[in-house]
Design goal:
Blueprint (H helix, E strand, L loop, with lengths): L13 E6 L7 H11 L3 E6 L3 H4 L2 H8 L7 H7 L1 H4 L6 E7 L1 H9 L5 H8 L4 E5 L9 H12 L3 E2 L3 E4 L5 E5 L3 H12 L9 E6 L4 E2 L5 E2 L6 H12 L3 E6 L11 E4 L3 H12 L4 E4 L6 E3 L19 E3 L3 H8 L4 E8 L3 H11 L4 E6 L11 E8 L3 E9 H18 L9
Parallel strand pairs: 1-2, 1-3, 3-4, 4-5, 8-11, 8-13, 11-12, 13-16, 16-17
Antiparallel strand pairs: 6-7, 9-10, 14-15, 17-18, 18-19
Bound molecules: cytidine-5'-monophosphate.
Length: about 425
């Protein structure tokens, strides 16, 4: 992994950076820049002694967020409870011997140590201290306790210290800290450098200003794919029909309503993409005409709506593609494999994820899904009932194989 390349590997991650009172506190400024530069949103918490080395304003300006300092002000706002809310990790750098002791025994006499007792997320501790302190049996014991609890403690490095001594006590170098953060938060970065265009959700095809034709798609599968691709290092654009889901952080979200709008938005991003995953449930038919005013009953007992075919977006993109990998979905209620195979070939796709939407506990609206993934060249992978997020990861792993195998010309697609 090239850690010097300012990739956006931490996009969408919320971090708490704890700074304690060591002379190495100035290095936390550069660490903060590196974390935000990788896309993380960082909330800084300083101990009182850290504020003797650096002004909170420095962190405030660079993080773009208020800095939490003294416990009393924090209590007023209950910040010790709200700061870590939704945080993906807490990094304490530099961590003093005093901090290690408090963390090991669970003392909570300032805001940072209190946060540790309220937070559920992983903790990375980067000690920095003088001379023989790191070697002291008490410090070593605290480090052992923390590690046994699953805390990542990075050994300090040997070198000249502020006191003039040469010993093990220097804060771990920034690339090591970043590597630890990335290893913890993005263990798999196999989609780094990929540009992933995902569609999700239903479309709505207007009949008149108040009515539309739509379907039961919740958007959960497409959103899960967008999040998984982001977490694995990809740049993601998510074109989404109307859903009740929260827009994923660190993903460019393009909201659309109709099939035509979805086709236009995907068309605009198509040449940018290296992989397109079409998880949206696009309308196949739409009203030929859209009434400008609300249609009236006017004593009618029946009503016939004249429908025309909506654009088949995948088929359209497939005809325009250069090197993009195209993945479709097939939601079926019968003859799953034969219908999905026909779509794989007919739409000129590299893979299709076929799911039986009549299956109990899977499909529309559910958090789980089961599918069979068919890929060009006759590959077939059964993906039993699992969470949509796990299924998204399985799909991406399968697509990664197709990526590395290269895309054959349309003539060789089976
Ligand atoms: O033909 P069918 O709608 O069953 O194909 C499903 C796949 O094609 C899905 O990936 C869906 O997003 C896509 N599709 C499309 N444009 C349509 C209808 C479906 O791209 N008008």
């Amino acid at each position: 992994m090239d850690l010097d390349r300012p990739s956006a590997l931490l996009r969408g991650k919320r971090l708490v950076l704890g700074v304690t009172g060591s002379i190495a506190a100035y290095k936390a400024v550069s660490l903060l820049r590196a974390l935000t530069g990788r896309g993380a949103s960082v909330s800084v918490v300083m101990t009182n002694s850290a504020t003797k080395f650096l002004a909170p304003l420095t962190f405030e300006v660079l993080s773009g967020q208020p800095v939490t300092t003294g416990l009393f002000e924090a209590c007023e706002e209950m910040r010790h409870l709200t700061v870590p809310e939704g945080a993906h990790a807490i990094i304490v750098a530099p961590a003093t011997a005093n901090f290690l002791a408090k963390a090991a025994v669970g003392l909570a006499d300032d805001v940072l140590s209190t946060i540790l007792l309220t937070a559920q997320c992983p903790l990375i501790v980067v000690p920095a201290m003088d001379g023989g302190m790191w070697e002291h049996p008490t410090v070593a014991e605290h480090v052992r306790i923390l590690r046994a609890r699953g805390v990542v403690v990075l050994d300090p490095e040997e070198g000249p210290l502020a006191s003039g001594q040469v010993a093990q006590g220097r804060l771990a170098a920034e690339p090591r800290i970043l590597e630890a953060v990335q290893a913890l938060l993005t263990p798999q970065a196999d989609w780094l450098g990929q540009r992933v265009l995902v569609s999700a959700g239903p479309t709505q095809e207007a009949i008149d200003p108040v009515r539309f034709i739509s379907n039961r798609s919740s958007g959960k599968m497409g959103y899960a794919i967008a999040e998984a691709a982001r977490d694995r290092g990809g740049d993601v654009v998510l074109v989404t029909g109307p859903t009740a889901l929260r827009p994923p952080a660190g993903v460019e979200v393009v909201p659309v309503t109709s099939a035509q709008e979805m086709a236009d938005a995907l068309g605009r991003h198509f040449s940018w993409a290296t992989v397109v995953v079409m998880a949206a449930a696009v309308a196949d038919f739409r009203p030929r005409e859209q009434a400008a005013r609300k249609l009236k009953k006017q004593g009618r007992t029946s009503f016939t709506l004249d429908l025309e075919a909506a654009p088949d977006i995948l088929a359209m993109l497939s005809a325009q593609r250069t090197t993009q990998i195209l993945v479709g979905f097939a939601a079926e209620t019968e003859d799953l494999i034969s219908h999905a195979t026909a779509k794989l070939v007919g739409k000129g796709l590299d893979a299709i994820v076929a799911n039986d939407v009549t299956k109990e506990g899977a499909g529309f609206g559910s958090d789980n899904n089961a599918a069979v993934m068919l890929s060009r060249g006759g590959r077939r992978k059964e993906l039993g009932l699992m969470s949509k997020r796990r299924l998204a990861d399985e799909i991406l792993t399968e697509v990664r194989e197709l990526r590395t195998a290269g895309r054959p010309s349309a003539a060789t697609v089976e």
